[in-house]
Design goal:
The protein is α/β, with parallel strands linked by helices and 153 residues long. The chain has a domain of 105 residues: Vaccinia Virus protein VP39 (Rossmann fold). The chain contains 6 helices and 3 strands; from the N terminus they run αααβαβααβ. The radius of gyration is 17 Å and the shape is globular.
Length: 153
């Protein structure tokens, strides 16, 4: 499938999940209750423009750095933002300007809702096949200090 066709469909044709012309992007079941409670904090426009196929989240993400590929309107990024906390980071990558505009438009509001002093999310335009072009690093900008151990003699 041509990437331009996909970008057109997800960026311009779809305005809400009700506009989907296929059942290929549908959630496989109910979201766990602890995640549903966090989803309530995500802006309605972001939730309405969700076209994903569900979410799988580990039990503990506090302070983690998470990459969401095909992040769309940012629903999962904002949900995970709450799980990683103010010291974690979530980066969303998407190729559609319209979806990224929706995601970026709500950063400040979500950070206020979550009680964070600074954003712990960012959205990058790019292709998941070309992540090396996005300047992503496997090492956080400010890695935590690690205690050094001395060897006893």
């Amino acid at each position: 499938m041509n990437l331009e066709v996909v970008k057109e469909y997800h960026g311009k044709v779809l305005k809400s999940s009700q506009d989907l012309k296929s059942s290929a992007c549908c959630e496989g079941g109910d979201m766990p209750a602890h995640l549903e409670a966090l989803l309530v904090n995500v802006h309605e426009e972001v939730r309405n423009r969700y076209y994903g196929c569900g979410i799988v989240v580990p039990a503990s993400l506090k302070g983690a750095r998470v990459l969401d590929l095909g992040s769309g309107s940012g629903r999962d990024v904002y949900l995970i933002s709450q799980l990683v906390g103010p010291d974690g980071e979530v980066v969303g990558v998407d190729m559609t300007d319209e979806q990224l505009a929706t995601a970026n438009a709500h950063i400040d509001g979500h950070m206020r809702t979550f009680g964070y002093k600074r954003p712990n999310v960012k959205f990058l335009k790019g292709y998941i096949e070309k992540l090396s072009e996005l300047g992503l690093s496997s090492v956080p900008e400010h890695p935590p200090e690690r205690p050094t151990r001395r060897k006893s003699r």
